[in-house]
């Protein structure tokens, strides 16, 4: 490998890390360096921008330790047979970069992944050393997210969780058959085994913290995973059901979806075109329906077409409502929260405000309009003190009426 300076390595390894979607920084414990102790903080306003649930923008240094790899996964640009420029950081170089970027107020944390070099254990040791040096040698209190390696020794993965706020173990593809076909060197059994061990470790860590305040924190922001969308034959229904299983079995904080992107010198088994980015967006929306809106996985899947694919022109909740019109209209003055959350166009905050407001007075259509972006989308599915949709809910052309019109964005819009 040719000798490269730090700037050249950073250009290569930051670009190579862009295919990792799982870099949100929410859910961790609060730490800061006020009082003159330590370096860094897990809070504040922030090179990768992630967003916390409250809307704060968090800047993370998102890089690979190396883009060299001994594996030959067909979908990966860094696979062994790929003709890309290679680079590698030492553990100390990553530590110094993180501290230097933080002190210049460029970042608030680190997201670190890596290709597999020499062996899974050797690579995992390097990742752990970065986190250990930041925490113990430099008292770094900012956010750290480590992408762990399922094939590594469980003790190394456990050490990673002692230093990192969040760890992620990628399932890579939605189906076992897809993984066997496109990444034959990886094992779904080993991946799930590592995720199960991490879940148990997190639970044990929480129990220990309840009994002993001095017990070390163990991945306080939990674990996450990522699935590649569109590289294999899995449809949206397969992906939704797989995500639901992962949430239930391993108590994941997030499942991330990454649309497959064609890579240089692709393998013959890969599709020639990338899936629409809107497909990735619809999968995130379906994920939100299960996590925050009370939808069961089967209900989300029922919104898909006969081919198992979610519609791209409308969101999954609207697609479900159009299929199951007998559930509507919903009376916003009487319906429970669970029913209100199923109304297209009403988000969790709008429903919360409706429930609060109707305790004091009857809700009108104008009241609802002030809580939603498009009252036209909501109107066919609700009744208020001054509005009844009559036959509107059952109209054959209802989809046309509630589907947002595509418009050219204005470059100079305020």
UniProtKB/TrEMBL annotation:
Which residues belong to any copy of the Elp3/MiaA/NifB-like radical SAM core domain?
59-286
Q: Which UniProt keywords apply?
A: Iron, Iron-sulfur, Metal-binding, S-adenosyl-L-methionine
Which InterPro entries does the entry mention?
Answer: Aldolase_TIM, DNA_rSAM_put, Elp3/MiaA/NifB-like_rSAM, Endo/Exo/Phosphatase_dom_1, rSAM, rSAM_sf, RuvA_2-like
Q: Name one GO molecular function term.
A: iron-sulfur cluster binding
Q: Does the keyword Iron apply?
A: yes
Name the PANTHER family for this protein. Answer: ENDONUCLEASE/EXONUCLEASE/PHOSPHATASE FAMILY DOMAIN-CONTAINING PROTEIN 1 (PTHR21180), TYPE II SECRETION SYSTEM PROTEIN K (PTHR21180:SF9)
Per its record, how is this protein called by name?
A: Putative DNA modification/repair radical SAM protein
Q: Which organism is it from?
A: Sphingomonas rhizophila
């Amino acid at each position: 490998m040719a000798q490269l300076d730090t700037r050249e390595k950073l250009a290569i390894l930051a670009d190579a890390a862009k295919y990792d979607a799982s870099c949100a920084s929410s859910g961790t414990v609060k730490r800061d360096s006020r009082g003159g102790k330590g370096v860094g903080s897990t809070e504040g306003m922030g090179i990768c921008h992630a967003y916390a649930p409250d809307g704060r923008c968090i800047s993370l240094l998102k890089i690979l330790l190396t883009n060299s790899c001994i594996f030959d996964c067909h979908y990966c640009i860094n696979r062994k047979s790929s003709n890309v420029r290679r680079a590698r950081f030492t553990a100390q170089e990553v530590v110094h970069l993180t501290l230097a970027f933080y002190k210049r107020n460029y970042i608030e944390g680190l997201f670190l992944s890596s290709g597999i070099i020499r062996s899974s254990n050797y690579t995992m040791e390097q990742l752990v050393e970065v986190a250990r040096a930041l925490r113990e040698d430099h008292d770094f209190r900012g956010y750290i997210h480590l992408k762990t390696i399922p094939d590594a020794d469980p003790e190394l993965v456990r050490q990673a969780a002692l230093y990192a706020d969040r760890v992620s173990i990628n399932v890579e593809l939605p189906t076992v058959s897809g993984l066997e076909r496109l990444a034959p060197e990886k094992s779904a059994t080993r991946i799930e085994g590592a995720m199960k061990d991490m879940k148990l470790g997190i639970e044990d860590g929480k129990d220990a913290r309840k009994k002993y305040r001095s017990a070390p924190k163990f991945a306080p922001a939990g674990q996450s995973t990522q699935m590649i969308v569109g590289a294999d034959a899995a449809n949206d229904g397969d992906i939704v059901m797989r995500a639901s299983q992962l949430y239930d079995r391993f108590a994941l904080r997030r499942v991330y979806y990454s649309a497959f992107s064609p890579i240089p010198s692709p393998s013959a088994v890969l599709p020639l075109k990338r899936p629409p980015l809107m497909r990735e967006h619809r999968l995130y929306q379906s994920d939100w329906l299960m996590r925050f809106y009370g939808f069961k996985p089967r209900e989300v899947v029922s919104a898909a077409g006969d081919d198992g694919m979610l519609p791209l022109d409308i969101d999954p909740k609207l697609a479900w409502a159009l299929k199951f019109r007998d559930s509507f209209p919903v009376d916003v003055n009487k319906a429970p929260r669970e029913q209100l959350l199923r109304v297209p166009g009403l988000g969790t905050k709008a429903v919360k405000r409706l429930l609060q407001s109707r305790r004091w007075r009857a809700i009108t259509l104008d009241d609802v309009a002030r809580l939603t972006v498009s009252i036209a989308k909501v109107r066919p599915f609700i009744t208020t003190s001054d509005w009844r949709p009559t036959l509107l809910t059952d109209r054959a052309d209802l989809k046309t009426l509630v589907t947002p019109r595509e418009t050219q964005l204005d470059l100079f819009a305020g």
